[in-house]
C-alpha cells in the first residue's frame, strides 16, 4: 500500500525529469485511501519558485477540498522536503509525511532549518523517511549527471 | 523611499484585513525602483495554505519576469516571513528583505527555523527589520482582537 503510493510519486518524478525539471514527485492520499492529488516539479515551466511537487499537490488537494487544510491526509514525496514544502505541509495540517531520499543539499526536515522542530511550527506530521530512497536518489543522480554531460 | 514602499505593503495588509484575511502585505521592487508586484494574504479566499502575501507577490513578479528568479529585486513585507515565505525568498534570489513586525509566534527568519541561517540555504538576502513595525503590529493586534470579540 505505502509502496504503491510511493511508486506513483516516483512516476511523477520521472515525468518531471522528462520535462527537464528536477525529478521530484508527490502524491496526496485522503483519509479514505484515495489519491486526491499528484504532481511533479514544474518550477521552470511555470516560472514559479514555489512550484515544487509537494506544494503543487497540496494546492490541488486544497482546491478540491475547498479548504486550506488537509486534516487526516497523508503526503508521499520522493525527496526530503525543503523549508518551503515543510512549511506548507505544516500549514496544511498533513497527518503523515512519507519521504524517500534524504536531501543533504537543500533539505529542511532532518537537517538545515528543521522546520518541524521549533515551537514556531504549529503542526508537525508523523514522519516516515527512507521509503524507496535508492530509486529516488538514482533518479536525481541520473538527471544531474546527464545535465553535466549534456 | 523605503518608507513609501512599506506604506504600500501596509495598504495591502489593510486590504487583506478588509477581506477577512490575516493582515499582512508585501511589495516587490525591481532594480529600476519600480513596484512590479504587490499582494496581501489570500489563504482563505484561495483555499491555499501558501497564499501568503510574500508568496503571491513573488509569484506575480516571476510571472511578469518570465523567470523563477528575481535577481536584484527587493521585497517589503509588513511581518517577519514564515518558513514558507523565507524559503521562497531564498529560492527567488531576492536581494534585500525589508520587514516590519517580528513574528514571535510563526516567524522563520530571526527565530524558529531561521531559514537563512543554514548551509542548506543557497541564498540569503540582506535583511532590514523593524520598518514601520508599530503600525504592522497594531494592524495584526486589531484584527485578532476584533475576531475574538466578534
UniProtKB/TrEMBL annotation, chains A, B:
Belongs to the cytidine and deoxycytidylate deaminase family. ADAT2 subfamily. This is tRNA-specific adenosine deaminase. InterPro entries: APOBEC/CMP_deaminase_Zn-bd (IPR016192), CMP_dCMP_dom (IPR002125), Cytidine_deaminase-like (IPR016193), tRNA_aden_deaminase (IPR028883). Zn(2+) binds at residues 52, 82, 85. Residues 1-110 form the CMP/dCMP-type deaminase domain. PROSITE patterns: CYT_DCMP_DEAMINASES_1, CYT_DCMP_DEAMINASES_2. Homodimer. Its EC number is 3.5.4.33. Catalyzes the deamination of adenosine to inosine at the wobble position 34 of tRNA(Arg2). The gene is tadA. The keyword Metal-binding applies.
